[in-house]
Amino acid sequence: MMSDAKTPVLLLAIETTCDETGAAVLEGTGDPRDVPTIRSSVVSSQIDLHERFGGVVPEIAARAHVRQIMPVIDEALRRANVSLDQVGAVAVATRPGLVGALIVGLTAAKALALALDVPLVTVDHLEGHLYACQLAFPDREVYPCVGLVVSGGHTHLFVCRGPLEVEQLGGTIDDAAGEAFDKVASLLGLGYPGGPLIEKIARNGNPKAYRFPRSFLHDDRIAFSFSGLKTAVLYAIKGQDGKNDAVSLTEQAQADVAASFQEAVVDALIGKTRQALRNTGLKRLGIGGGVAANGRLREKLEQMAKRERIELFIPPMALCTDNAAMAGVALIKLARGETADFDVDVIPGLVRPGRTNG
Ligand code: KG4
Ligand code: ZN
Predict the structure, then answer these.
(1) Topology match between the domains 9-136+321-336 and 145-314
(2) Which residue ranges make up each domain of the chain?
(3) Architecture of domain 145-314
(4) How confident is the model at residue 315 (pLDDT cuts 50, 70, 90)?
(5) CA–centroid distance, residue 273 to ligand 2 (Å)
(6) Which residue has the least CA distance to atom 14 on ligand 1?
(7) What residues are neighbours of ligand 2 (ion), with CB under 5 Å?
(8) Does the Cβ of 193 fall within 6 Å of ligand 1?
(9) pLDDT on residue 356
(10) Which of 23, 51, 89, 223 is most buried as measured by Cβ atoms within 10 A of its Cβ?
(11) What phi, psi does 339 have (nearest 5°)?
């Protein structure tokens, strides 16, 4: 179905790819030059449910989405002052993510689109993370840009010719950067999620105290690896004989480990991002994902952007972490007539199979 590009549509967007249940209402025409307005965006976080496991437990995430999805949608509609019969289309992120979690969002989206007799549009979660930059800076031209998505589930670089023309340049071959923060925090006995806790104690630490590995830094490939770094931190804490534990480290030694680890992650992210910018010749950089909260990463991104004369886009945190507003990229698909059939399925893996699934 082709919508009239001039008529604004009220879009109900749904996000359940990982451990945040999100719903948002956006209004826009789908003209790429016309950035939609976010009428509401509601996120219900599951952090408290996963905290004691030190990471996201997929089955718990899926069950929590089942409980939260309808109340979150109701709240998004209420805050937007929009009734269901005003909704002109339903969008949902169907890839990549945890399979059980994705299915909850897609099922809700299908049911609503069917009941309301409006188009269903599926979106890519990573395209959404990068489109969040455009939503956050509606008066600026974000595309074409290099995109860096760095979260608990992803650490990937993209070349983004447009909101829907996003191609992966490379990414992590093992852990995501956020996952590494979470695991190192757990080794240090700090709690979950680890990123903010590591950042806090790192402020009192010496980033040069330990020389941790920065994988691929002297390699042409656009790739990241954080599992060797994690092992190096493990040995730094436990000693080569594995006898120490974090508790036996002095407070200063813990801060030094945290600061040196954080510096290694940030160096890897900055190094590869700079390489992606130089390789592509692009002069804009968009950031997405929860690790963008990290102050040291922001500081070094800003320094690099200044040196390389790059325009840097870091959305406010509510648009960096998982949210449904970023699925507003669906309005562009809707205007192009790229709606999904009701037999559309989720695609959990990160493999980007092209646009064969709506
Ligand atoms: O995007 P996000 O909220 O959720 C997904 O992973 O999809 O990102 C969460 C990740 C966690 O791994 C968390 O430890 C990390 O982002 N994070 C941080 C900081 N705040 C959150 N990592 C480093 N420094 C931070 N300040
Ligand atoms: Zn995400």
Answers:
(1) yes
(2) 9-136+321-336, 145-314
(3) 2-Layer Sandwich (3.30)
(4) very high
(5) 18
(6) 195
(7) 151, 322
(8) yes
(9) 30
(10) 23
(11) -95, 165
